[in-house]
Design a protein that fits this description.
four-stranded antiparallel sheet; seven-stranded mixed sheet; Aspartate Aminotransferase, domain 2; 2 domains; 17% strand; 14 helices; globular; alpha/beta; binds pyridoxal-5'-phosphate; Aspartate Aminotransferase, domain 1
Length: 392
């Protein structure tokens, strides 16, 4: 059954108010997610926060099951945290680095992740090997394999960058990581919900993501996947009485599974609503959603590339839903403000958010227009016309 776009839009209250091409910022929540979120908060106000949590145990637990189903993991390999950065940090800051250890990353690296690498470099004297792009703009697999040494402790790949349509070949990287027995941390913040992710096929040991973007969950939610066999490779950087048990005056025992990467207090309503968002996607049929996103983005790229003065900057053999462009004369900030005023949501992609890529390609500040399955061909036409008019 092809996706019913009218139904998708009817399910999404925001579609009546805005043309939303900022799904890589935060997707518009569908009604079931809104209901779950509001319903739980109202319940908390009526019967008490702890009591409401207890009463919602089934839906709360289902969030782990739904995420696990989406990415091909087991529920106890999932930790629910507040955002993608914290999920990623749990792994990165949990690695027992020593001076001279090396980590591998690529041009698509996100600023927050790279900042953490720089901090650990300063603290422990680790070295960062940045792999270049192949002729398609994806991470160069041959160079990556050749860069592995006996001191390589971790491969950190960004699946889809903050600043473009590129989908990095995560599975190829996983094959190499497994072959050389190097732990593999995949940043799936921009990819979860817009492209296929199966941790068994990808062979990553760790995967981090956020809830608010292509999964269309609420802000302030995220998750971490930790392969059961990889649990002992890292020690959570923070422990609390949920992540570990104080079993003797001087001893503690870590919680089983990925829960050791969580902490006790959290955004319960958000976590429940994230589960609804993932269930919503599973019910629609993830492959249809992913195909639709790629199709609408391809249409947008093609339309924009026909406007005088516009350059579309997206790389990759396979491209996803993020479209980035600049204009050779008109300041993109001016274009963005005019689009805002027309009720058309986008974001700017600023070079320092993905500095390795921006410097290698000499990228300017760009407009990032990121589409979802509920966006339409008519919206693409209206948006393109608006850009043409504003930039003229
Ligand atoms: C590639 C990538 N990784 C990580 C993040 C951080 O996600 P969060 O804001 O949920 O911490 C972002 C945010 O835009 C991103 O684009």
């Amino acid at each position: 059954m092809p996706l019913d776009i009218d139904r998708l839009r009817a399910d999404t209250p925001g579609c009546e108010h805005v043309l939303h091409f900022n799904n890589a910022g935060a997707g518009l929540m569908p009604q079931p997610v809104l209901d779950a979120l509001q319903g739980h908060i109202v319940h908390e106000s009526l019967i008490g926060g702890y009591e409401a949590h207890h009463a919602a145990k089934e839906s709360y637990d289902d969030t782990y099951a739904a995420i696990a189903e989406l990415i091909g993991a087991k529920p106890d390999e999932i930790a629910l945290v507040e955002n993608a950065t914290r999920a990623w940090d749990q792994v990165f800051y949990g690695m027992p680095f020593k001076r001279g250890d090396r980590i591998i990353t690529a041009h698509a690296s996100y600023a927050s992740n790279y900042l953490a690498m720089l901090q650990q470099k300063k603290r422990y004297g680790i070295e960062i090997d940045v792999i270049g792009n192949d002729e398609h703009g994806q991470v160069d697999i041959t160079e990556l394999e050749a860069s592995i040494t006996e001191r390589t402790r971790l491969i950190c790949l960004t699946h889809i960058p903050t600043n473009g349509g590129l989908i990095n070949p995560a599975q190829e990287v996983g094959r190499i990581a497994r072959k050389h027995d190097v732990p593999y941390l995949l940043d799936a913040c921009q990819s979860a919900g817009q492209t296929d992710i199966n941790v068994e096929r990808i062979q990553c040991d760790f995967l981090s993501s956020t809830g608010r973007k292509y999964l269309r969950g609420p802000r302030g939610t995220g998750f971490l996947y930790v392969r059961t066999e990889a649990l002992d490779l890292i020690e959570p950087p923070f422990l609390d009485l949920h992540a570990a048990e104080w079993v003797g005056r001087n001893t503690y025992k870590m919680a089983p599974g990925a829960k050791r990467f969580e902490n006790w207090e959290g955004f319960v309503a958000g976590k429940i609503a994230l589960g609804s968002a993932v269930r919503y996607l599973l019910e629609l049929g993830p492959d249809d959603v992913y195909a639709r996103i790629a199709e609408i983005a391809a249409l947008l790229r093609s339309r924009l590339s026909h406007i005088d003065g516009i350059t579309v900057h997206d790389l990759g053999l396979r491209k996803g839903g993020i479209v980035t462009f600049s204009h050779d004369k008109t300041d993109v900030r001016r274009i963005k403000i005019a689009l805002d005023q027309a009720g058309m949501n986008t974001n700017l992609a600023v070079p320092k958010w993905a500095r390795l890529d921006a410097e290698a390609r000499g990228l300017p500040t760009m407009i990032r227009a990121s589409v979802h399955a509920y966006n339409t061909e008519e919206e693409v036409e209206a948006f393109t016309e608006a850009v043409r008019r504003i930039a003229a």
